[in-house]
Structures
1.
Amino acid sequence: MAIAVALSKLAGLGTSPISSIPNVMSILTPLTIGQMTIIFMFVLIGLELVFLRREFSPWALLQLIPSIIFGGLIDLFTDWLRWLPLNNYGAQLIATFISIFILAWGVYFEVNSRTILMAGEGLATAVAIATQKAFPRAKVWCDASMVVVAIIIALVGLHGLVGVREGTILSALITGRLVNWYTDMNPKLTHWLHIKA
């Protein structure tokens, strides 16, 4: 998933909702998108604690491990992919779509392996439990909230929709559908992942 975030960052048409705030903050501050992602994941885990209170499990702190690795890999892939010629809108759009397909593949494995969730999914789970709503609805609410916050930060700090663009909307609309499609198209792999989990 880190390579998907890096590719969407370099394409410049906006990242996925979960990466929209770190992306805008990386433009606004000297920190990289990977460093901002790590900080943001820590904030999300803190929000899980706020929503769950006494139901918060110390095991949820294990989300810190993949969060740190994820942030580091985003910066690594961003450096590696800088050679890509993304200097026109067509190339940027293609790179954005490729990043969405890769991201959906990563989410498919994350969700179906039933191992440690990333903090974004962890927060959505916490919201679902606290509000007694279905996970998909909580996930949409969390993603939409992140995009709104990213837009506000961009408008206030950068005086425009910088870092949140059509790629963010495309990712929000397509990623979930692709995850479902991957699940339907790979029943044997999905079953195997569930067994291994």
2.
Amino acid sequence: MAFAELAHYAGLPPGVLNVVVGDGETGKHIVAHPGVDKIAFTGSTEVGRQIRIATAGSGKKLSLELGGKSPFLVFDDADLDSVVEGVVDAIWFNQGQVCCAGSRLLAHESIADRLNEKLKARMERLRIGSPLDKAVDMGAIVAPVQLERIRTLVERGAAAGSPMWQPSWACPAEGCFYPPTLFTNVNPAAEIAQVEIFGPVLVAMTFRTPSEAVELANNTPYGLAASVWTENINLALDVAPKLKAGVVWVNATNLFDASAGFGGYRESGFGREGGREGMWEYVKSRSEAGGRSSEGARAGAAGAAARGAPPQLHDGTNGDGERHRADASATLPAQRGDGSGGAVPLPTSDLPPINRTPKLFIGGKQARPDSGYTITVRGAGGAAVGEVGEGNRKDVRNAVAAAHAASGWARATGHARAQILYYVAENLAARAAEFAAEIARMTGVDGADEVEAAVSRLFTYGAWADKYDGAVHSVPIRGVALAMHEPIGVLGLVAPDAHPLLGLVSVVAPAVAMGNTVVVVPSEPHPLSATSFYSVLETSDVPAGVVNIVTGGKDALAKVLAEHDDVDGVWYWGSADGVAKVERASASNMKRTWAEAQGAREWRAAGQGEGREFLRAATQVKNVWVPYGE
């Protein structure tokens, strides 16, 4: 309320800032209110998960700054006296009730014992009492229920066999006070090493090599902040990009400034506060603000009737999970092959004399679908023009595993990724007539312009691959904050049905240009462009696993991707109901989503089908704070 009073004195117009006090029930009503367009939440991961579920499909913009279990890495050349003061600031500041508290101490094995002894000596000198007393180091826990939770977790940690140490002095008898606590030789999988305690409890473990330190640091569901202590700047700047954390402090902790973004990875949430990247959370492009020219008004689920698709085409599954396709004039049963490539006879067919069933594309290889089933693809007049495999959960699992195995793609230079995208564009251009004819068979309209646009889009993102870089922020320390654009990781891409080739390229190209590996679900009614496209990938030096293609039911496969805990983000263009399901399912591991209803975007327009919006969605910003000087 004091801040609101200051805003009033500063001349902020009435109604611009509104403060409502209350508990979680009040927040619940704010989240559910239809007049709210953007929600920014700071709090526990569990409540953030509830908000993600509650807002699914509502169209509300969401950014979440959630819990953490931040690592505090100390290498053997670090100044241990400075480290001790850094630990005090990291975990005992505000009694450890800070989302970015450095609650996991990872020390080089050779210096761990010395560091622990120095920490114990410093803990003995900490003063606990009223936070209004300037000579006090620690105040009280925020509430009795939180105090009880801390006690319970500490007791369970001690019972599990982790050595516990507390100072010899006693806490004040009155109030919710808890002493600073140190656990040593903690198993990395122990509950106290994985769960956010949100109290003055530090768990310590050791490592032997920098690579082991990174593995231990990343061994939690969270990814909010990290602190790296070493006198070797080469080592610090090698380790920092490898840490799954939105903020990394070198030889420091708890540094903040409005010019540098703050936010997390994984279950620590998504979105940023502060910095240029933080501003994007509160604005939208002019095309969004003014309303996009909607293809959806002219399109059914398969695409626009104006492009020659059958009128009112719908795709989905019935209650038994069987495939079905229908148009306004007829209802056809599922058209499945027997898994050997032979098609069930249809009333009309435009299939070639030698039937070819394109397979899935997983790990750089063509793979038969696990189900053994095929789906008939129909052209503009309803005739069968081909078949594709019907992917399922197991195929998605294999594709995600292949994408993870190709993680080296993120370490490739932007220049190297650019050259490969240029090569893909060149090879696609060489087969332009073939792809255009295939698009015409599926949609009934000339595909030459679409192929030309797809080639142009590949060149565009090839050019962006080594130019969409970060920034160096001028922060109020003797040092700099490096804003680094990092890939999200493994992205699940559910391509739009409209423009089967251009839509596919428009989502794949920016994702891989930024270093992500992808699992793509192509246009459901027109998937043959995607299955032909993988032969272009095979001849264009694209490493195995960078692009994986799984054909089948869009919404069924999208749900599997959204629920998969090894998928870091999902992009989806489909039905409004599908948008809600994807956003709701993504709450399992708080993955980032970009989901829009079919027809919300004009893919042929450069302002909507390509650009920085896609690059921002394909990256996350890590701010690395680097002090310098003796």
3.
Amino acid sequence: MEFWIHLTPELLAISIVTLGILWHLISSSSNDVPPLPPGPRGFPIVGYLPFLSHDLHKQFTEMAQTYGPIFKLRVGSKLHIMVNTLDLAREVVRDQDEIFANRKAPIAAATSTYGGQDIVWSNNNSYWRNLRKIFVHEVLSNKNLDACSSYRRDEVRKTIKNVYGKIGTAIDINEISFSTEANVLTSMIWENTSVKGANDRDLAAEFQMIVAEMVELISQHNLSDLFPSLARFDLQGINRKMKKSLKKLDRIFTSIIDDRLEFNSKKKEDAVEYEGKKDFLQILLDLKEEKKESSFNITQIKALLVDIMVAGTETTTTLIEWAMAEIMQDGNIMKKVQEELIQVVGLNNIVEESHLSKLEYLDAVIKETFRLHPVVPFLIPRIPSKTCIVGGYTIPKGCIVFLNTWAIHRDSKYWDNPLKFDPERFLKNNMDYKGNNVSFMPFGSGRRLCPGVPLAEKMLMYVLASLLHSFEWRLPKGEQHDLSENFGITLKKRKSLVAVPSQRLSNVNLYM
């Protein structure tokens, strides 16, 4: 108080004016920074966690009606941002793609990919860019995909023969689709190299079990992700279970790779040149042997194999099941699909990959299935590398940003009659899977577009066309159509589709 008492009136006036100016500058500066997006309040410590439902895609879409097209949620110690409209998604994946190109793998996902050394969960850095470049231009190049067409043909033919042997009995569509896709992928990845003590059918069944376990574990709300200080305790045992699943997968990979390395070593000793097309594994091992900056180590190769096997089988299998369910529910759509197959393929012939580009209506059916039932409803979350602005709101560095593809694909602002399954809408536009039109981005968009799109597109068309051309399909007696959803990192049918096939082709020999 003595300091203020001894101030002269002039000094006191100057001090007051100075403080006023400083206060104005501070207030103005703080007002220039846009606020965080709106959002619901939660409890201390746990945030909004107690209020989250099982059907998060529906819950968050409904919350957007209350809080607006972009809103925030604090769940545990983590800030989550939900983006629910095309315009705001475009700001993320197109306008500020580089800022939002990072990923933060959940603990279970990091464990399943050997510490996040894969394409899906790696950050946007030189390692990821090199890995993606090699995967796109070497492993999944058009040349390689064309060279592997015989693998796809052989496995699809085996599936048709297998289904023919079960005519009149109920077949699990998910199971038959998975085994087909798994066998195609294993043929393309490591051709004739086998796992000791396992036949193809046993291996496909084991893969399906492991993939189901991994997807389920990654889909769970893990307290270790929401409260990092609790991670070391693994309270729900999720990481322990994932390590167990990875151990089973690693055993398969190790057996395959060791066998191939031994084979390569013997050929090298015998001075035998590698003849014919190379499978994916050989391409990766050759790159490793080159010992360039772009080469891999064995663990990184395994992480990439996890991506191929898990993402490759889960996406295709889930989509085929949804497509079959939608087609079987609508007799008019089924009729149009099969009429197109008769016109392009003919009942005295089997489907070949050369037919696929001419199946325009079936292509539209698949795209409409992706629209109404996006396999990854929130896409893989993005982590901004610096604080930025989206939709007029501040998005802090390091928060977790979700793109609600499920909501965007059903937005009446961009889609006429959005809840109706209507393949015709895709006959009227040129939309593809590259995510250039953000209103339709089932595989993502921008830098983080899924690199496996070319293979997935081929397999979806080939398997669906073959099943629908070779057989008539009906539900088992007493069963009703069920399109209810089961939310997770992938959006699966709550109840597996079981259907009964009957012969459709004129010549029995076409099934052999």
